Amino acid sequence: MDQTQRGILGQPRPVPTTPPTKKRTSVMSFFSKVSWTLRFQKRESLKNVFSILAERAQDPNAKKRHMAMRGLGTMACETPDKVRKYKKIVLDLLVHGLYDPVSAEVIHESLKTLTIILGKIQGKSLGSFFVDITLQTRTLLDDENDNMRYSAFVLFGQLASFAGRKWKTFFTSQVKQTQDSLLIHLQDRNPQVAKACKTTFRACSPYLKERKETGFQTEEDQRNPKLCRQLSHYHPELLQFFYANKIL
């Protein structure tokens, strides 16, 4: 592994920091070189890079786990074909990062990288990862951190596009449980979060459509009164979109 790492990484560039320890300098140098490695040493096996990242992703040190998630994001951007090849490995690492028990930084980086990865693979063949990602992302929509909420809304909206027939029933139940959060964060204190929420609301709108259980219900009966009332007050243009598409 040591010889492989040296072959992959070459001589690391100096990273400006203030009095670092040798170990921290080594970690930061490694991850700052991931992008350079991918561009200029394509002849090296990316499997070796994955092995290093996988090891760092499970390290007891939260900083190393955080940088491993970032490294996976870099690989997804620069070598998407290779990432598709190792999709299951990458998703497994990122889902573990998403459920990190102690580090909000690891969780946030996992959210951002998952958004990149899912975009590259177009949400195909996610299997049970779809459930794991959806459940945790939904809990982060109300996080205290603005950046965490923003990334969670972006990813949740992306998941709405990838649910497909297989996960339609499951995702519909998740959206129903998320409805209050969607309404609340349309007025989020952070304008970027509010904008992301609005986009996600549109993406999730098909899952909010009420089923017609009998032929005796009027059009008014079939509408969600709470949702209609709040949208009418705060976002009439969104309510009009729902009506036009027969969602409400």
Sum up the structure in keywords.
0% strand; 15 helices; 248 residues; mainly alpha; single chain
Give an account of the 3D structure.
This protein has 248 residues and is mostly helical. The protein is built from 15 helices and no strands. Mean pLDDT is 76; it is low at 1-25 and 211-223.
Please render the helix and strand layout as text.
Blueprint: H1 2-9, H2 22-32, H3 34-40, H4 46-57, H5 62-78, H6 80-85, H7 87-98, H8 104-121, H9 129-139, H10 146-162, H11 168-185, H12 191-204, H13 219-222, H14 225-234, H15 236-244
Region (Disordered): 1-24
Domain Maestro/Maestro-like HEAT-repeats: 51-245
Pfam family, one: HEAT_MROH2B_C
In short:
This protein is mainly α and 248 residues long. It has helices at residues 2-9, 22-32, 34-40, 46-57, 62-78, 80-85, 87-98, 104-121, 129-139, 146-162, 168-185, 191-204, 219-222, 225-234, 236-244.
Structural class: mainly alpha
Element string (H = helix, E = strand): HHHHHHHHHHHHHHH
Q: What's the helical proportion of residues?
A: over 70%
**Which residues sit in consecutive blocks of at least 5 with pLDDT less than 50?**
1-25, 211-223
- Please report the number of helical segments: 15
Number of strands: 0
Q: What distance lies between the first and last C-alpha atoms, to the nearest angstrom?
A: 58 Å
Proportion of residues in extended strands:
under 5%
Q: Provide mean pLDDT, rounded.
A: 76
Shape: globular
Q: Main beta sheet: strand number and arrangement?
A: none
| CA-atom Rg in angstroms | 21 Å
Organism: Neovison vison (American mink)
Protein name: Maestro
Pfam families: HEAT_MROH2B_C
